[in-house]
Design a protein that fits this description.
Largest sheet: none
Number of strands: 0
Distance between the termini: 49 Å
Order of helices and strands: HHHHHHHHHHHH
CATH class: Mainly Alpha
Helix content: over 70%
Shape: globular
Strand content: under 5%
Radius of gyration: 20 Å
Number of helices: 12
CATH superfamily: CDP-alcohol phosphotransferase transmembrane (TM) domain
Length: about 300
């Protein structure tokens, strides 16, 4: 296979180059692509990759409880593997053309659980054994909430960008509406407790992520401007939005773990991340207003 063919195959496994995080494009997804090409020749399913990724991420959280430079290095390595596999499940689904809504839910829940495990591990290990545990626990909780909100903002604007530029039905609002309906039906009939539990977790966390997204914005998804104008207006800010994504956050945590300064990671998420999110939100609101997207 030629290098050009290999590049095209790699690009076909991406959500879209313009909405991918830089570190994903240059590091995590290329590694994931190598695994995916091998996995595509086997019966391995995307959901199995998701479960394995989740197990590694939870293990990383548990290792943080040990609170030592060596433990932090091991946790950093586990997070690298987690993020590679977290990229690989969706890439494998796109390569095998066997993605499903259940798979997206499982992937989302896996990410949520790993985030919780990591922050709990940092809290019980790093914060609880510090000289100022109350302060660091406050930072841990603030960073966890900030992480969720920042990732939620990126998810919203990334999906909206893909919806409009690819002329597809709204993934975010339609899926959430459908999932709420499915959960209500299962609850009334008292069926499938495992699936019902997964849906409950997914819907609760999705609601938390949308704290900064108004119902008016959820409804006003199509611009009055044409698609080309929408792309010109949003391409640059979409690039900056991606720096609030989970890969950037995990990469910061990996570096902080390797230098034994988890406190710097927490402060970076709470201070730098939130300031960046507020500024981007203000700029995005101005762009939306100019494009006629601020009305339901």
């Amino acid at each position: 296979m030629s290098a050009l063919s290999l590049l095209r195959e790699y690009q076909s496994t991406l959500k879209g180059v313009e909405v991918e995080e830089i570190l994903d494009l240059v590091f995590f997804r290329p590694l994931a692509f190598l695994l995916v090409r091998l996995a595509a020749l086997t019966p391995v399913t995307p959901n199995q990759v998701t479960v394995l990724a989740g197990m590694l991420g939870i293990l990383a959280g548990a290792v943080y409880v040990l609170e030592s430079p060596t433990a932090f290095m091991v946790a950093a390595g586990l997070l690298v593997l987690f993020n590679v596999l977290d990229c690989a499940d969706g890439m494998l689904a796109r390569m095998k053309a066997n993605g499903s809504r259940l798979g997206r839910i499982l992937d989302g829940i896996s990410d949520y659980i790993v985030s919780i495990a990591v922050y709990l591990g940092i809290g019980f290990g790093y914060a609880s054994r510090s000289e100022t545990p109350a302060l660091l626990w406050t930072c841990v909780v603030a960073a966890a909430l900030s992480n969720a909100i920042q990732s939620g903002l990126l998810d919203f604007y990334r999906n909206r960008y893909l919806d409009i530029t690819r002329d597809r039905a709204s993934v975010l609002k339609k899926d959430l509406d459908d999932l709420h309906g499915e959960y209500d039906l299962l609850s009334r009939e008292n069926r499938k407790p495992v699936l019902r539990g997964l849906l409950w977790i997914y819907l609760r966390y999705s609601g938390l992520q949308q704290l900064l997204i108004t119902q008016k914005q959820l409804s006003a998804r199509r611009p009055r401007a044409d698609r080309a104008e929408f792309v010109r207006a949003n391409r640059r800010i979409m690039f900056f939005w991606t720096f609030l994504g989970p890969t950037t956050q995990i990469s910061l945590l990996i570096v902080a773990s390797l230098v034994n300064r988890l406190d710097l990671y927490l402060w970076a998420i709470v201070l730098i991340g939130n300031v960046a999110a507020i500024l981007l939100k203000l700029v995005q609101n101005g762009i939306d207003s100019r494009l006629g997207m601020s009305e339901p």
